[in-house]
Design brief:
The protein is an alpha+beta fold and about 475 residues long. It has twelve helices and 18 strands. It has helices at about 30-45, 65-85, 90-100, 115-130, 135-145, 175-190, 195-210, 240-255, 260-275, 295-305, 310-320, 345-360; strands spanning about 10, 45-50, 50-55, 55, 60-65, 170-175, 210-215, 220, 220-225, 230-235, 345, 375-385, 390-405, 410-415, 415-420, 425, 435-455, 470-475. A hairpin with a 2-residue loop joins β2 (about 45-50) and β3.
Amino acid sequence: MLAAAATAAIVLSGTPAGGGAPAATVPPTLGAMRAGAVATLRTRWYAGAGRWQRCLPARCGTASRDWGADALTEALYVAWLTGRDRSLLPLFRGLSAANPRYGPCARGCREWSDVPLWDAVAALREYAAARDPHALAKAIAAFRSVAHSPLYARGACPEIDYQRPNGATGLKTLESDANRILAGALMYGATRERAYLDDARAHYAAVRRRFYDRWVGLYTVYVLDDGQSCAALPHRFFASVNGRMIEAADALAAETHDLSYAREAAANASAAERELNDARGIFTDLQAENDVVTPLVLALYERALRGDAAARRWLVRNAAAAIQARAPSGAYGRFFDGPPPALVTMWESAGGLALAIAAGALSPARVAEASPWASAARVAVAIGAPPSAYRFAGSGVAFVGTLGERAGHARVALDGRPLLDETGIWQGLNYLSPHETVLFAWRWPRGGAHEVRFLPAEPNVKEGPSFLDLRAALTLP
């Protein structure tokens, strides 16, 4: 299908086409964005009793475990690092009290391996801030529930863990192993028990062999292990796992004084800053709700504090752009260079909150960009099964559709060039009820003629078959 947005556009004013707030007359400073993000975490996202809202507006229930809740806990930890505000400590203690208590995962266990390990790292953040020994104990128990289980380290490459016990689906995700490495390094720092450091080093070496794309300098997130052979699913570059691996390598370098870890962390950070952006150099999150960006923000913020100028520039540049993705609730959409959706989930918002907090501490006087999306042109489209295309003249485009409508994904090429991250648009994955949202956004430094082409995707056990259903397009002049 070919659609010409410029000839049938309806100009919207006052309210962004994605459903957010009117553009500010005077953009705020990053310092003001930081203060707003901390307040939003405390008063809108935090539900009390150690639980986080799953979405804003708050109508999706609450959670106290797994990666969405843990990403918000980590955003709170960024706030702690930037100001050592002791008024945050009761929140950390509440989160620690609500943490699940993990026991051994033996025969009959159905726990996915990444869940306790996400929770272990979150508990270690709570311990680092509040020094609550119960948080450390829960982190250790969560870590051991995976590390001491016989159900995950199986298959043709048992040195990395299956996501599900006994290899159900054959999927291995770096979400498990990257969190395991970082948790091991942090627990060694807290306890000086050598077994944690040894486990972290062994799993780090295995991850480098199985998940690392040496041509790009980034980690893909999935390996498929059918029991006979292991194959990485290429070019699925999650912000979460790359951020975890950067921080883990830096932590291992600090604990072992092995400079090879430091060099690998620096190379990984440089690749993330260089490769995962739109044409304006703004990070673009293509992973639906299964990825969270907070780990990348935190890893780069820690590097910026140690003098990494490139990491500092990335944080400040992205935060200045991300104001356009902020909804009236104070929540951030996952596309920092795009409009905010009407409903914002915990998974997509945590990264923008952490980004605003970190950059606001680094460069508080920097003024954010003015948002152009309030006057974006919006047209209804019916872009379905690929191959299909959308042509327009302008400097930016966003596509709206229903997340969670049906399993499936489509690859994306811009002006004849396929995106480096081959996820493209993954419309099927959703952890709440299906809802309309921004599925893709991209901006260029200036206006011009552009073509967005949607290409068929190879089916796989995680992302499903080739599928696409876009309902609206927004364009910028």
